[in-house]
């Protein structure tokens, strides 16, 4: 469908949100890290089950042990998975030497390790939320050892 004003808008805004987030990470990495660490839905759901997320590797093990009741709600599932991935990334960034947030051109936040390896934490979180595999603690352990 050819809608000229929409085509013009897309040309002006194509990739701007991804570029904006990437620029924000460069300008204020701590501020963006705090924003990505919010993971509100995951923190609320974990809190409902008596688990306080303290941004530690041990909290990832505890999350892996929770019964996956979120799978009963197909609307909430992707949001919770996204939060789980961002939480995994937060734990990596806060506890693994040299790990930091990086933004792909698509706007996807990933964790870049000191070795240069990039971990797509959001994809890992979505996989964990949907199937339970890989466990968040497993992804952390594999990332932290390298």
Which key phrases capture this entry?
146 residues, mainly alpha, three-stranded antiparallel beta sheet, 3 strands, 7% strand, globular, disordered N terminus
Which stretches are poorly predicted, pLDDT < 50 over at least 5 residues? 1-6
The overall average pLDDT, rounded, is 88
Strand content: 5-15%
Give the helix proportion (percent range): 55-70%
Distance between the termini: 48 Å
Discrete helix count:
8
CA-based gyration radius: 17 Å
Structural class comes to: mainly alpha
Largest sheet: 3 strands, antiparallel
Number of strands: 3
Q: Could you spell the SSE succession in H and E letters?
A: HHHHHHEEEHH
The main sheet orders its strands as 1-2-3
What is the compact description of this entry?
With 146 residues, the chain is mostly helical. It is 60% helix and 7% strand.
What does this protein structure show overall?
The structure is a single chain. The chain has 146 residues and is mostly helical. It is 60% helix and 7% strand. It has 8 helices and 3 strands, in the order ααααααβββαα. It has a 3-stranded antiparallel beta sheet with strand order 1-2-3. A hairpin with a 5-residue loop joins strand 1 and strand 2 (109-112). The longest helix is centred in the middle third of the chain and has 19 residues, at 77-95.
Topology:
Layout: H1 4-13, H2 16-27, H3 29-36, H4 40-48, H5 57-65, H6 77-95, E1 100-103, E2 109-112, E3 118-119, H7 121-131, H8 136-145
Antiparallel strand pairs: 1-2, 2-3
Helix pairs in contact: 2-3, 6-7, 6-8
